[in-house]
Design goal:
mainly alpha
């Protein structure tokens, strides 16, 4: 059971922050010598919400909570900003679908294993590009509203989730000044890249403190 306010416990639960930490995957693979056993059964070839959820159930372990949170946060924004929401939900839910399978190795993220996984539901090129765009512009430019929100929400949601674990009321009543204070505390959720947390200012032209409260509002209903 999590005791709210237990910083040591929070750090343990969030030890894999950020998603793209360079300190995790390769060393772990070398020391264990293990490979992940992936089920071989085939998921529906049609790219639907149902098949995407089945894919998430099949491949996501440690990262499942994060992907589900990003999915629901993005749905919150989608309902206010654009249409064709259901199709986009697939991209949001599966944006890190390969992360646990590749042992959180940033060099392999969204490459061959990712393409192999999403081929099970015949994901089209546009959705693949939407997903790849959130990985620091390495493959696809962040040039649409959807992509700008995804890259802005991704790391910030990790940070706010970690902070909520310290609070008995979780997201309820989470104030701007306390978010700012936690961000300045480099010992807290130290794996979270503070530059990435501020992507909303770069891509959306929304001040971090303002956008953080919008994300908090979305996370209240998760």
């Amino acid at each position: 059971m999590l005791i709210f306010g237990d910083k040591k416990k929070v750090e343990e639960l969030t030890k894999d922050f950020p998603l793209y930490s360079n300190n995790v995957s390769e060393e772990k693979t070398k020391t264990t010598g293990e490979s992940i056993k992936v089920p071989t059964e085939t998921i529906s070839s049609e790219c639907t919400i149902e098949s995407a959820e089945n894919l998430a159930e099949k491949y996501l372990t440690d990262t499942r909570t994060h992907c589900q949170q990003v999915w629901k946060i993005m749905r919150y924004f989608a309902q206010q900003l654009w249409e064709d929401e259901e199709r986009r939900y697939i991209a949001w839910l599966l944006h890190d679908i390969d992360w646990d399978v590749i042992w959180k190795n940033p060099e392999e993220h969204l490459w061959d294993k990712f393409l192999e996984i999403v081929s099970e539901i015949s994901m089209d090129d546009e959705l693949i590009s939407d997903i790849r765009s959130h990985y620091e512009e390495k493959w696809v430019p962040v040039d649409t509203t959807l992509r700008k929100y995804l890259i802005s929400v991704d790391e910030l949601s990790w940070f706010l989730y970690a902070y909520s674990l310290l609070r008995p009321t979780q997201f309820e009543g989470m104030a701007r000044k306390w978010i700012k204070k936690r961000l300045k505390d480099k010992a807290f959720a130290r794996g979270v890249d503070r530059d990435h947390v501020q992507y909303c200012e770069k891509y959306l032209d929304i001040p971090l403190q303002e956008f953080a409260l919008q994300v908090v509002e979305a996370m209240k209903n998760i």
